[in-house]
Amino acid sequence: MTSIVQASNHDRSVSPPVSIETFDHEGRVEDYLRRDHLEKLMDEFQNPKFKDMGLDMDSFCNVMHKYISKDVISREQLALLFMKIDTSCDGNVDWDELCTYMLVAYEEKDDDPASEAQRLHIHETVPITRVNLPARIPIACVTHHMPTQRNAHSSYRFISITEDGVISMHRSDLKPIKTTHLSLPQRKVQAVSAVVLTPFGKVAVSFSDRTLRFYDLPCTVSEELCQITGFSHTIMCMAFHESETTDTLLMGDMGGRVHVLQFREHRFHLLSATDARDFRHDIPLSRLSPDYYWSEQVHSDWVEGISGYSAPGTFISCSATTPDAMVVFDSDARKFNIPKGVRAFDFSKQSNVLVSGGVDGKLRLWNPHVNHRANAILEGHKASILTLAIQTKSSIDTHSRPAHQFLISLSADAVVKLWSLYTHACILSLSASHVNPGGHPITACLYDSGTSSVVYASDQLHTAYLGRELLSTSGETQTHSQPLTDVGYNPLFSQVVTACRESMINVWNLNTGERLLKFGPAHASAEVTKLNFDHSQRRLLTAASDGTIKLWNFNVGLALMKLQTDLRVEVQTMLEMQDGRVVSGGWDRTINIFSQCDGSDYYVHADQSAIGRGHTADVTSIVELRPMYIASCSINGEIFTWKVLDRVLATRQHSLRRQVPRCSVLGMVAWRHALQTPGAQGAQHVVLWGSGGGAGCVWLFNTNTGRMLCELHVSRYTVNDVEVCGSGERMVTADAAGTVKVWSCAAWREDVDAGSSAGEPILQTKWMAHVQAITRISLATTKAESPATEGNDTDGMTRVVLTASEDCTCRVWTIHGEYIGTLGQARKWNVHDPSTYRQQKPADVAELLHRQKQQQLQETMRRRSRASMEIDRELAQQTSSFLFRSLHQAGRIPPRIAEEGEGEAEAGYSHHHHHQQQQQQQQQQQQERQEGATPSASALLSTATSVQSTAHSDTSSLLAAAAHRRRKSTTERLAHRVTIHQRRLGTMEKLQQQSDLGYRSLECSQMQSIKMADLPRPKRYSFMD
Any idea where the EF-hand domain is (predicted)? Predict the structure, then answer.
């Protein structure tokens, strides 16, 4: 059912309408109330005994049981209904409150089929959004910020930089939410390109003065962190490529040179790999270590685009020149000759398809290993291609149905086209009448797979939404249509509340996974950034990016109160204190107090006299330490302790960055007294999380002494959220890679109470929950009806982990990593019965794990191949040395020839190692493809093999293996030298008659003088690293 409701209780102001959709399920108390029941209930409420105060819980249950049998509805169900209605938490329910609840639960309104069809299908009239920036300066670059960090970073998705150095952060609807003017040394210096270094929380910006500057995210200060100088040309384009071992920053300059800067072990180092903090403000290019920086002249003209290819250090780049329009640089540089050059490209590793967009407006599909002919040419654009993107729509059953792939292209005349890579047909085309850049040329553009939209810029920002359902990258059940921002568990009603970017809120039954209610938009077009429950667990607090906070009766979707800050900037954290006041913090860098939260007024403003100031960066989290005391932290590691009276007073101020330089704190949770002994009540500890030194970390911090007691490196990705069990003995962490880890913190108990440095927690279990970043986790504990239910803990409680992610899903797991299901799936579950759980991992997670396993297997095979080549070289060297030594002892060659031969054998392979490794690999690959793998054996190695086979079995196997290796160059040279010497002695004719291979004429009697001690013993080699 769907209805539009308004708040109309007593003297409250009217609330903005929200859409409410209820879902009928069996067993609700409301289903048993008929009209005659309601008339009799009205008479009961009109009783003078209850008319003024209303009914308390006992009276309410007794009155309801007069009309509904106890066998049908239990007293516990009626108590839950009473608490849903009593949102004021005064312990009484009056007739107005009951009518409001029943009205919201039953009033129906049909869905709009037109809007539903528009949401599910793509039409020619695609929604176009245009955002005018304050300064009409052309935008130099627009780049993604892949959301991997909660609170401070997850609320914006795009970063734009104008030519004069104004950097802005935008939400998915392109609304700018933060703008900073970068400090430039000269007015003539312009910004050219930018890229986000996601794991490090930084952005790299290139400027026209041939410098590269790094800034921390979010850009709250205009000064750069450091800069690299000394480039020969201006950097025109950049890309950041992540891998399992090394992160790579790829840069293409105006002279056609590609610069590669590698970050080993996922640490942000520029001068040394040993210490992530070892860098200076101004770093000349010549000071960079050649182990981490190198460059290559790839194109004859400036580089238009660049992207990572496969292994670290490999890339694909393009230019507007014909002979080297596109280059795939891995083991060699494969150049693609394309008329008029290439301005955009994209590569799909899944289907091994490389698509190029030319200046001639044609799209060409290539095999990346074949550069002389395109597989297909797609025509339709009339101007040069500016951007390309390959999007894959996965299927749940990947074995029976292949994933469908689409191609999105944008040309310079602002025409967007959607193609099918299987049929090569154009599915959708948006003409310039729909996409109008305002008369200015397009200076930057990109495709956002998260919102399925094309974003392009001139002096304004524009986006064309193409339809999420068609281009969705996941075949799994979705909890929301947009990425989730938060999830919370309500233990009173055993319900889960989720929120997404489009400001929609869903209420779920945790025990079965059913959706009970959907309402929104909760904050109009603003994104919901935080969910929290009040102390009574009956009402819901939501914070938004527009600076508003709302109090809800979440069981019916009714807004009870709206709290407004003075500065309409994002609220990142809020909570309700024990005395009923609401405390909030966010991008205004202040602590706001809302005292008038008794429900008398709908609109409530922050107390101007009680604002707490002191933070120099965005406030990311607020926790209540004890009555009247709160603690807050900011993104730059500042930790304040406040005493909340009539005004907010700062009692202590500490900084985590004094102990962990360049850390970014994204959240904080209080370490409750349950962990401490009664004698240590004065110490208040908090657990902070975020990133430090390019890795995800968790810190245990004492707010009284300002001392960090423990630093735990959780992951190479940023830690986005941490939850602590009530007893403090277990901690759950979630990172930007979608991994959940459960830690045992029992060892912290004695260390914290003793005041000493605490030891690191012990990892109990971990699992991959999502393929994209986890934005929020929540812990839930439910009690089973039967304590002996299989899968429950020994105390009969089922402990559950809820994970909300950027992939639009909220998944439910046991504390041991068992997959229960996804909120929104059709199949119900019983959280206490493991037989109802999903038996397999989510399809996208299973696919990613399989792909990672294949990559690890390929890497292992490459390592084994390299080890085998080293063994071959060693065997060939030993065999050649033994041959000359044996012939010398047999009197066949003089000592001088034997010494020279042994010296050449020892030095030959090391001298020609690099040259032979490249040439022989290419020749062998060609021969194996055309003629098949045919092992070659030379005369000298065959002679040595026959000698060793008569002498010793171990030596025979060693030389027999060496005889079948492809080492033609060295063995033929040695055979030639020995043949010349034999001709001088006049014995060549005898040798040719006895052997077809040259030196097999050696008789065993002639080799008896060779001692066994002179035979080389085989070495033991391991094929594993």
Answer: 73-108
Tell me the β-bridge partners of 623. Answer: 631
Which pLDDT score, from 0 to 100, does residue 1020 have? 37
Cis omega (within 30 of 0) on the bond before 218? yes
**Closest listed residue to residue 205, CA positions, set 265, 172, 162, 174:** 162
**CA–CA separation, 479 and 473 (whole Å):** 14
What span, in angstroms and rounded, lies between the C-alpha atoms of 590 and 567?
A: 10
Fold of the CATH domain 29-120:
Recoverin; domain 1 (1.10.238)
**169 close to 219: Cβ distance less than 8 angstroms:** yes
Residue appearing with tokens 């001139």 = 458
Domains of the chain by residue range: 29-120, 483-613, 714-747+761-785+795-863
C-beta pairs of 472-475 under 8 Å, 24+ apart in sequence: 472/393, 473/391, 473/392, 473/393, 473/394, 473/449, 474/394, 474/807, 474/808, 474/809, 474/844, 475/393, 475/394, 475/395, 475/396, 475/398, 475/843, 475/844
Confidence of residue 668 (pLDDT cuts 50, 70, 90): very high
Q: Which token pair is 919? A: 């040439």
Do 172 and 195 contact (CB within 8 A), yes or no? Answer: no
Q: Which of these CATH numbers, 2.130.10.10, 3.30.390.50, 3.40.50.300, 1.10.510.10, describes 483-613?
A: 2.130.10.10
**Residue 918 Cα to chain centre, angstroms:** 37
Task: Reduce the secondary structure of 306-374 to three states and give it as a string.
Answer: EEECCCCCCEEEEECCCCCCEEEECCCEEEECCCCCEEEEEEECCCCEEEEEECCCCEEEEECCECCCC
Q: Do domains 29-120 and 483-613 have the same CATH topology?
A: no
Give strand pairing partners of 721.
Answer: 734
Sorting pLDDT into bands at 50, 70 and 90, what band is 415?
confident
Q: Which has the minimum average pLDDT: 461-470, 627-636, 677-686?
A: 677-686
Q: Which fold has domain 714-747+761-785+795-863?
A: Methylamine Dehydrogenase; Chain H (2.130.10)
Whether 93 and 85 have beta carbons less than 8 Å apart is answered as yes
CA 866, CA 880: separation in Å to the nearest integer?
A: 22
